[in-house]
Amino acid sequence: MSSCAQSNYAKLEPEYAKQIYADLPDYSNMQYWAAHPDKKDPSDSVPAPLKAGYTPNSNVDVFFVHPTTYLDSTKPYGWTASLNDYKTNLKTDYYVILNQASIFNEAGRIFAPRYRQAHIKSYTPNNKVDTGYALAAFEIAYQDVKKSFEYYMEHYNNGRPIIIASHSQGSTHTIRLLKEFFDDKPLSKKLVVAYLVGMPVDPAIYTKLKACEKPNATGCICSWRTFHEGYVGNFVANEKYTAIVTNPLSWSSNLTKVDRFQNTGAVLYNFNKITPFVVGAINHGGVLWTPKPHFFGSFLYKSEDYHFVDYNLYYLSIRKNVGERVDAYLSANSNYTR
Fold first, then answer.
1. Mind listing the pLDDT tens digit for each residue in 274-323?
2. What is the three-class DSSP state of 228?
3. Read out DSSP for 42-101?
4. Are 229 and 193 in contact (CB under 8 A)?
5. What is the SS3 string spanning 104-150?
6. Residues with Cβ < 8 Å from 78, sequence gap 6 or more?
7. Which residue among 63, 128, 243, 279 is least enclosed by CB atoms within 10 Å?
8. Sign of CA dihedral 208, 209, 210, 214
9. How far is CA 132 from CA 149, 158, 186, 206, in A?
10. What's the Rg (C-alpha) of the chain?
11. Structural element, H or E, at residue 281
């Protein structure tokens, strides 16, 4: 644990700190990976319509950091999730890893660490004391992600190109991970692409890394947050910068409005069903807008914020795009073959 997190917890509640110190992940143990090439897990799943043409690539790795799944309003483990909470782990595995990480299973080998994630309320603390807990919780979570990445690099990478992918809290941590390990660092040469989805990415925090501007660009960042057309939340309005926003249908900085008929497939209620023409995509400032989604029984009709389906709405488009970027990277680096 970092000195920052130690200091925060020591000041707040010593008994709570003891609990955190006792619940350390060991990334040599498969238990601490939600997805890993050496075990069968939901990231291996392929929607039924896509199975016939499925040709996985083992020359590239995907390091995926999952979003918040510690959602219990009673905070049974305080501000920091327990790695041994089976309910949280089930949500991670059979919602997030299945519906998000699986997008990347044809592009490369998937590594998705479990980490001591911050509780969802850490994003909206009510007072100064809660803010201290929240900051410490985020620091603990990042240190786990960092530790898992360092273990992955030492034991599993073996020089392979890397895709970084994440959502929500996962992106909170990978934004920092990219800065620490890739930006203006030798490892940037191994970066195929980073999909930092569901959180605002300030382009100014990076020295060398830039937003992707073309569908086959590599070594760059894709990011978006999906809202109903016309909606601007207070948190967006208060941002002091324009976040990176990638159109997940065109993947081009020159084509920023694409209608839903160009969206060949979303994955929604039924993982084994590909639903076309659900939503379009419109770049607007630092967010992505879309008209109301079109699908039977839509659970989004009464919502303005489509955060939890940022990946699902564009499932097939993302899957195709990451393949294009992998091909482009491998073609430009002849020491790898697809």
1. 999 999 999 999 999 998 888 755 666 678 899 999 999 999 999 999 99
2. strand
3. GGG---GGGGGG----SSSEEEEE-------TT-TTTTB--TT-HHHHHHIIIIIIHHTG
4. no
5. HCCCCEEEEECCCCECHHHHCCCCHHHHHHHHHHHHHHHHHHHHHHH
6. 16, 19, 119, 133
7. 128
8. positive
9. 26, 39, 35, 27
10. 19
11. strand 281-284
Contacts 24+ apart (CB under 8 A), 23-31: 23/82, 23/83, 23/84, 23/116, 25/83, 25/113, 25/114, 25/115, 25/116, 25/144, 25/147, 25/148, 27/113, 27/147, 27/148, 27/151, 27/152, 28/151, 28/155, 31/114
pLDDT at 183 over 80: yes
Contacts of 124 (CB under 8 A, 6+ apart): none
User: What token pair was written down for 145?
Assistant: 């992600």
Residue type, 327: D
Contacts of 273 (CB under 8 A, 6+ apart): 47, 48, 49, 267
Residue 232: CB atoms within 10 A of its CB come to 14
Distance CA 304, CA 230 (A): 9
By three-state DSSP, how is residue 37 classified?
coil
Closest CA to 118 of 145, 93, 150, 99: 145
Is residue 266 within 8 A of residue 279, CB to CB? The reply is: yes
Residues 6+ apart with CB under 8 A from 286: 200, 225, 236, 239, 241, 242, 243, 244, 245
Beta strands in 184-259 (DSSP E): 191-197, 221-222, 226-228, 257-258
